Amino acid sequence: MPVDRDDSIITPAEMSAIDRDAALSGIDSFRLMTSAGTAVSAAALRLYPQALRFVVLCGPGNNGGDGYIAAAALHASGAQVAVHALGDPAHLKGDAARACAGWGHAGEPLAKYRPRPGDIVIDALFGAGLSRAVPDEVAAVMRAVGSEQLPVIAVDLPSGVDGRTGQVLGESFHASHTVTFMARKPGHLLLPGRTLCGSLEVFDIGIPQRILAAHTSGLSENGPHLWAGQAHALDPSAHKFKRGHLAVFSGGPLATGAARLSAAAGLKAGAGLVTLASASAALDANAAHLTAVMLKEIGDAGALARWLADKRIGAFVLGPGFGDLETARQYALLLNDRALVLDADGITAFKDDPSLLFEAYAQGETHLVMTPHDGEFARLFPDIDADPTLSKVDRAIAAAKRSHAVIVYKGADTVIASPDGRAAINTNAPPWLATAGSGDTLAGIIGAHLAQGMPAFEAAAAGVWRHGRAGAKAGEGLTAEDLAAAIEPLPA
Ligand SMILES: NC(=O)C1=CN([C@@H]2O[C@H](COP(=O)(O)OP(=O)(O)OC[C@H]3O[C@@H](n4cnc5c(N)ncnc54)[C@H](O)[C@@H]3O)[C@@H](O)[C@H]2O)[C@H](O)CC1
Ligand SMILES: [K+]
């Protein structure tokens, strides 16, 4: 599935296939390396005009090749340059060997580098080809550079960061700036990789769009491009029933707040009507707090089954503060032909028999959205969670395929994945969004989107994005109440 180029994310494996195709179509790979290395030198000169010395650390592969090109370009611009190589440069091959020959000066071994004030480090040790923990020799240099607090410009990725997963293999540089080529890789957006990149620049080294598009999967950064064309569903001028009716299940008398946060968020996010479904014991507590949100007594599965005759209720949110796991299980199974956001206790309710839930929602278009954080994810998908080879994106997609649900795998790098293989990494959430009730608010926003007929993946992705925007708008120190109030209209 081709995605918009600026938002698309390319895995290192896809990037190698792109490189191969580029070579097959006659594109000169050394020119690509020259563009890459020159872009790095340009970034270095632009960002650090005051540098006393640029120290280029070159590795044994093409990342090192980019480094030699950058060193030559910096030298040609009149800057002071030192090169330190990992391994014997005589063993370099292909374009990297040619780039090293072009630099033409004898380099020093990596272990001989002694960081000094005024140095700007250019990290060209490992990029897309990192396959295992960095050697001790490299880790020692990383620590020395870190303790001197020298600025680091990373070529493609900070060495040590796995471009596929964002995980650190052994030790990594913490770059102040990273220059990558053609498109971002998952490791630039997933944590901790995102933080270790510093500011990120994507430079077009000249691989044609047609070659990129041929190898782009359905992974992109979460943003409005994913639900363009769906926002009309939230037209505020439409009749309240047309704008969707959302139902949210309340917890017991001492735990009603979470569901009310979901309901309030659903209303603010654009649902025309929101009803809180509450057992009789919690009716008074809810009634005392509700105004625009309606209240309906639903005490057991029989009452819910009767209520479901009303087909105008477009979507349900089950789980926030719900508490009673046995009832949650019954309700979720009864709702299996309706659009449902299953969160918190609604997810935990199926920890002993997840397949019961997955089978119940297997028919038809995807209409279940689950919003687990790490702990809830591990409860429902223990084997996927335990597989150390999978990235967060891989985990979310595997879980979505198995459960026939859109998975919103929450965290500071929330991943939204669809059973059809599409996935998005969200990047707009400020750190202070991790506050009590934040997840309840998110469930309500997604519920509002489902109630208006948005498809599940788009509803979830747009919900996560609006939630992040609301967090940024409400600002540091926000409470979940502020968050709902800060929800902005969905951009068209
Ligand atoms: N189209 C592009 O984006 C271009 C990217 N370029 C640059 O090329 C690198 C990828 O180059 P590659 O040679 O495949 O990989 P690396 O240089 O990252 O390293 C491979 C090299 O290192 C060895 N190795 C891997 N892990 C370790 C380890 N932990 N310890 C020791 N050695 C390790 C491995 O065996 C190889 O020898 C990409 O990032 C860009 O910077 C090109 O310039 C052209 C276009
Ligand atoms: K690097």
From TrEMBL:
Keywords of this entry: ATP-binding, Isomerase, Lyase, Metal-binding, Multifunctional enzyme, NAD, NADP, Nucleotide-binding, Potassium
SUPFAM superfamilies xrefs: Ribokinase-like, YjeF N-terminal domain-like
Coiled-coil ranges from the UniProt annotation: none
Cited Pfam families: Carb_kinase (PF01256), YjeF_N (PF03853)
Annotated residues for binding of (6S)-NADPHX: 62-66, 127-133, 156, 258, 321, 373, 440
Residues of the YjeF N-terminal domain: 15-213
Recorded family membership: Belongs to the NnrD/CARKD family. In the N-terminal section; belongs to the NnrE/AIBP family.
HAMAP family in the cross-refs: NADHX_dehydratase, NADHX_epimerase
Protein name, as recorded: Bifunctional NAD(P)H-hydrate repair enzyme
Native source species: Pararhizobium polonicum
Lineage of origin: Bacteria, Pseudomonadati, Pseudomonadota, Alphaproteobacteria, Hyphomicrobiales
Gene from which the chain derives: nnrD
